[in-house]
Amino acid sequence: MKIIRSIAVLCGYALISFLLAACSRGGDSLATDGGASDVGDANSVAAVSWDSGDPEYEAMVIEIEGVRELNGGVAKITVAELRALPQHEIDAYFRRTTGRLEEHHMIGPLLRDVIAAVGGNLDDYQGLAMIGRDNYYCLFSREVLDNTPDLLLAVVVDGNPKLDEDLAPAWATVQGQFGPYWVKQIARIVLYEEIPQRIITNVWVFENLTEGIERVEFEYWGSLDNAVELGQIFSRMDYVDSRAFFTMKSSDGFRKNEAINMVKSRYYIKVDGEDAPTNVSPFIMLGMNVQRIAWFSTSTDAVIFPELFLEYIDLETIRGETGVSLEEVLYEVEMEVVRGADFELIATNGERYRVSGSELSNAILVPLPGGGAKVLWDEGFDYPDIDDLLRIRVVEVDA
Questions:
Q1: Is 248 exposed, middle or buried (0-12, 13-18, 19+ CB in 10 A)?
Q2: What is the homologous superfamily of the domain 11-192 according to CATH?
Q3: DSSP3 helix / strand / coil % (the chain, rounded to 5)
Q4: Alpha-carbon gap, residue 13 to 135, rounded angstroms
Q5: Dihedral sign for Cα atoms in the order 352, 358, 364, 370
């Protein structure tokens, strides 16, 4: 069986070396003259020379793609040019998904000012991605950007103007967000003007959707655990829009987005062992994972882990068995229309029937050992129970 390791235990990737070399080359010089911004918890810093004294380090480049005014061109901004922008400081803290709290004193330009320096306006975009030199990728939705007006690119951390190799050339400071948003080694920023609308029309039970897909072994904190590649899961769905977001939500409420075209290959859902279900990849550093995933989705399909829903959704009991309302399951995965739609419930054995969304509050989803789930109806309803649910599908929405 193939064994895959995370970037925290695999060293010497050729890709990392390539990106490091690419980022060390000088970019086109930018003449920037941004105005100071007074936002959030970031305080303006008096003009101080934070030059590292290392010309090669100061010439390290961050590329910025998708700036509307550049008509497809790629802007480049160096560390020295980042320092020339108005500087802000934050006594920053964040909690890793492992629970460990980190605190640092961060200084750098606001992301908004960085985008303005290359000719763009952050308000014009629906989201953006930051990619590290280690190929770590994180997608920032419009909601995250709006909720973090003091997001800055730290070029000085705890008084050090020359960041360690595992941080340089800049560290995203995203106060109020979990650790996975604090992207280190920023090499590239990609701006997205449009993101396809997310309309969930299918809800799948993970274990039954992935039946028959080969599990691979993934090394996670020294343990070899089973994982399923997302690309193979996507192949079982009717349609996957590569331009859309891939969304994950954990049972503790943490939510993270990725771009689907970045998770189609060498990206996995670990299904057993510590913190499972969790996202893993050779390019995700340990501790930056979304742990205890309750569901994930594309722009049209949501995939659920029923046993995790029991941890945070109100429980109901029917005929002595405990589960969660089918209606609440659909609302939880952010299906827009439930009561005004008709659905088809499909069992793993192929049996199926149609039901009005207005009646789904009278049925519960009960997790089964091994990851499946059954559907039980309250007394007085003529719908048959489902021994093992595969999928809930929207078949019609009221006009």
A1: buried
A2: Oxidoreductase, molybdopterin-binding domain (3.90.420.10)
A3: 20, 35, 45
A4: 10
A5: positive
Q: Which is higher by pLDDT, 107 or 49?
A: 107
Give the closest residue to 236 by CA, choosing from 214, 207, 210: 210
Q: Do residues 133 and 61 make contact, with C-beta atoms less than 8 angstroms apart?
A: no
Q: Centre a 10 Å sphere on the Cβ of residue 354 and count the other Cβ atoms it contains.
A: 12
- All residues at 6 or more sequence positions from 333 whose CB lies less than 8 Å from its CB, including other chains: 200, 203, 295, 297, 302, 304
14: left (phi over 0), alpha (psi -120 to 50) or beta: alpha
Token match 């079982």: residue? 236
What tens digit of pLDDT does each residue of 110-168 get? 999 999 999 999 999 999 999 999 888 888 989 999 999 999 999 999 999 999 999 99
Give span(s): CATH 3.90.420.10, the chain: 11-192
CA-based radius of gyration for the chain: 23
Note the pLDDT tens digit of each residue in 79-117: 999 999 999 999 988 776 566 778 899 999 999 999 999
Give the mean pLDDT of the chain. 88
Token digits of residue 191: 């701006």
Predicted local confidence at residue 374, as pLDDT: 98
Which tokens hold the place of 224?
């070899």
